[in-house]
Structure formats: C-alpha cells, structure tokens
C-alpha cells in the first residue's frame, strides 16, 4: 500500500513538473506583454521575468494601447472570429450529414467509402496544399472567405468521427420516429443531433482551434493584408520596424486568449455521455 502511494505521489509530482514546464512560455508571454521593453531586457533570464510588476499596474495595458495605435489589430481579430465561425458551422453541417448518411443509410459501396476515409486520414492537409491552391485559384476564390473555408470544411477525420458516434445511437429511436411519421431530416435534427452534443462540441472545438491557429493557408490564399486573420497579422508585428517586444507579446496574448477561453468554457460539453438516453 505504501509503495502504491509513493508511485502515485511521484506521478503527481511529475505531472506538476511538466505542467509548470509547459506553462512557462505562456506565463512569460503574458507577463512580458505588461512590461516595457527596458524591463523585459533587464529581467530576461531571471525569475522576475515571470512575475508581473505590481508597482506599475496602471501601465500594464500600455503595450496593448500602443500596439492598437500602430496596427489595425481589431480588424484582424474580427477576421479570425468570422473565418473560424464560418469554418466551424460549415464543417459541422457537412461532416455530420456525411457521417450520419454512412452510419444510417444502406448506400452503395459503403465499405469502400469508409475505407477511402481511413486512407485519406493518413494524408495531412499540407501534403495536398499546392494542388488545393491551384483548384481554388482556378475557381477565382483567392482573397475570399470561401477560398479560405472550403478546403477546411470537408474532413475525412471528422466524417469518420461522426459516423462512429452515430452508429452508437440505438436504432429503436429512429424506428419509433419512423412509426410516428417522422422524416429522415426530422430524425436527424430532432433525435440524432440532441443526443450527439458531445461529438458536435468536440469536433467544433477541434475545428475552431485548427482554423484559429492556421497560418500557412491564409498566407497563401490572401494577398490583401486587410483580410489577414490574427495568426498571420501577428507576424506583421515582427516585421514592422521599430520592433517592440512587449507589443509582440501583447499581440500573441490576444491571439492565445480565445483558445484558452474555448477550452475553459466548453470542456464540460465534451465529457463522455450515454448515447442511449431516451430508451425506456
């Protein structure tokens, strides 16, 4: 029993150590965004670089104000929110319908389609980036939100996740609905979707984080800087002279906060739930 407690304590200490290790860059970024460039240079490499200067709380937001006065960061923040929401809603709609069809209907070549999905999951988006760009360019969709969103909306991985989850929904629910005269669309919207909130939230969060952090594709698809999302626009802070490190950290902090908020407030919605709810 004592040996078990020692092992458990060591595991907890190890997890705490790794947590602190991974939090260090984020803490340093946030703290540096509240200090002057002189303070950052003076304290770098010391423990003080991770501690906010509480004697100058009133000046914590100065780097943010200076950054917004130099750059139209509000526009880029709006761009990121708009692009991410379009991709999330489009992805949930398209992938859930495809996954539901594969899980529910007896469609031709279902096994081959499922096998193709598994093969496509192996290939990352970056491996076909050039080919997709050529197609988008031929469709005259460069510099448009649809040119950015369309390649991200359809996802073999997300379709497969939806398919696996929908297969777990008891057939008794849909059979009872059919007997009551419900259509396939009504069963999908009024039975399948309410039961499948965990998978919708999980995929929604994954898609949101992926689209929010995406850098290469927006950089390729947009040639007008006013259309850049935050992930690309924050690089402007590193390229526009004079370069102020505290303003760069302020931009990175603003870029990071929405991701943290999504995880904090949406975590409870992605907990495993029993898909057999409704069976009596």
Please specify the SSE layout and strand pairing:
Blueprint: H1 2-32, H2 37-43, H3 62-70, H4 73-104, H5 110-122, H6 129-138, H7 145-153, H8 156-167, H9 171-179, H10 184-195, H11 197-213, H12 216-221, H13 230-239, H14 245-266
Give an overview of the whole structure.
The protein has 14 helices and no strands. 71% of the residues lie in helices and 0% in strands. It is globular, with a radius of gyration of 24 Å. The longest helix has 32 residues, at 73-104. Helix 5 crosses helix 8. It has 280 residues and is mainly alpha-helical. It has two domains: 2-59, no CATH class; 71-270, MetI-like fold, CATH 1.10.3720. The chain crosses the membrane at residues 12-31, 81-103, 115-136, 148-166, 187-212, 244-266. It is a multi-pass membrane protein.
Tags for this entry?
single chain; mainly alpha; MetI-like fold; 14 helices; 71% helix; disordered C terminus
Number of DSSP strand runs: 0
Averaging pLDDT over every residue, what do you get?
Answer: 85
CATH class of the largest domain: Mainly Alpha
Strand content: under 5%
- Assign the CATH topology of the largest domain: MetI-like fold
Keywords: Cell membrane, Membrane, Transmembrane, Transmembrane helix, Transport
Main location: membrane
GO biological process, one term: transmembrane transport
Subcellular location: Cell membrane
Please provide a brief summary of the model.
The protein is an all-alpha fold and 280 residues long.
